[in-house]
Automatic annotation (TrEMBL):
<keyword id="KW-1133">Transmembrane helix</keyword>
<dbReference type="GO" id="GO:0004605">
    <property type="term" value="F:phosphatidate cytidylyltransferase activity"/>
</dbReference>
<keyword id="KW-0808">Transferase</keyword>
<feature type="transmembrane region" description="Helical">
    <location>
        <begin position="148"/>
        <end position="167"/>
    </location>
</feature>
<feature type="transmembrane region" description="Helical">
    <location>
        <begin position="115"/>
        <end position="136"/>
    </location>
</feature>
<keyword id="KW-1003">Cell membrane</keyword>
<dbReference type="InterPro" id="IPR000374">
    <property type="entry name" value="PC_trans"/>
</dbReference>
<dbReference type="Pfam" id="PF01148">
    <property type="entry name" value="CTP_transf_1"/>
</dbReference>
<protein>
    <recommendedName>
        <fullName>Phosphatidate cytidylyltransferase</fullName>
        <ecNumber>2.7.7.41</ecNumber>
    </recommendedName>
</protein>
<keyword id="KW-0443">Lipid metabolism</keyword>
<keyword id="KW-0444">Lipid biosynthesis</keyword>
<feature type="transmembrane region" description="Helical">
    <location>
        <begin position="259"/>
        <end position="277"/>
    </location>
</feature>
<comment type="pathway">
    <text>Lipid metabolism.</text>
</comment>
<keyword id="KW-0594">Phospholipid biosynthesis</keyword>
<comment type="pathway">
    <text>Phospholipid metabolism; CDP-diacylglycerol biosynthesis; CDP-diacylglycerol from sn-glycerol 3-phosphate: step 3/3.</text>
</comment>
<feature type="transmembrane region" description="Helical">
    <location>
        <begin position="12"/>
        <end position="40"/>
    </location>
</feature>
<feature type="transmembrane region" description="Helical">
    <location>
        <begin position="87"/>
        <end position="103"/>
    </location>
</feature>
Amino acid sequence: MKSNFLQRAITGVLFVVVLVGCILYSPLSFGILFTIIGALSVHEFGHLINQSSEVQINKTITALGGAYLFLAVMGFCQSTIGAQVFLPYLALLLYLMITELYLKKKNPIGNWAFSMLSQLYVALPFALLNVLAFQYNPTESSVTYNPILPLSIFVFIWLSDTGAYCVGSLIGKHRLFERISPKKSWEGSIGGGVFSIASSFVFAHYFPFMPVWQWAGLALIVVIFGTWGDLTESLMKRQLGIKDSGHILPGHGGMLDRFDSALLAIPAAVVYLYVLTLL
């Protein structure tokens, strides 16, 4: 028990240090880290799906697709290349569709569906981090790297999870979604939300490129959709009859276990921030 706690603590600290360090250090370290994370997460998703005898998707090709999509969106957001950067990715999607005509597998429709889901559910959210990280400055006609927005998404998620665990352990009585995740409580979720929104005031103070209410709104969006993201992965694991999505992070499970909340929170944050620019 003690050794397992120590393992979890060491892995957790290293995970946070690497993630925060790579985001803050440079666009290059940010890109390398999330290209790897995206590819590993898509590959892990494929491995989970392939455990069922009903479906067999190409883990290697889908993982390469996830890595390429991140790099393509990164290049596009930096304005270093035009929309033609997405043509190889479209070719990859066509390859996944066409090859099923010749492989004579048991469930080609299921293979198509889960191959595309690996890109929509896993690869696309990581790629959308680039939309948060790279912002176009019309006055200078240049693109700047702003690591604070993508970093804030993960900080809000971590504080929400920590707050939910602490508050839920102390006073949690009313189950949030007992059918899927029996341990989550309304009290814990609200407590986690309070932690995240409180941290948004700190971000607003030190990084005033958004007003306080926009930072607080972003934190609230991340908390709500992050909770749904967690529940979504819990539903998938329950359906597949597994406890952890993988074992790549000792004591913490797989990549999807660590980034499940982010898979819905990131797209929601992008939509929220784009809506703000239209107001």
